[in-house]
Amino acid sequence: MNPMLIMFFQIVYTLLNIYFFMIIAYVLLSWIPEIRNSNFYAILHQIVDPYMRVFRGILVFGGMDFTPIIGLMILRFFLLFMNSFMQTL
Question: pLDDT tens across 65-79, in order?
Fold first, then answer.
């Protein structure tokens, strides 16, 4: 297989993995009201929210939104699939 294509997949995989951990940070930081007003959280919100908005409101129980779990699971499954695919290259 073409080395450039392998490098492309590795870069995409790494970026998606970083994005996965950004979502986790976004969710954890959302529980701290003081941090929600920071510039760091605003930037994180702009990066993560477009993906999370797709799933928002699907799993809401008693005022708790469990939507990030769905988004994280789908992204993690995609990363596992991508990792398995890259192992075959």
Answer: 888 899 999 999 999
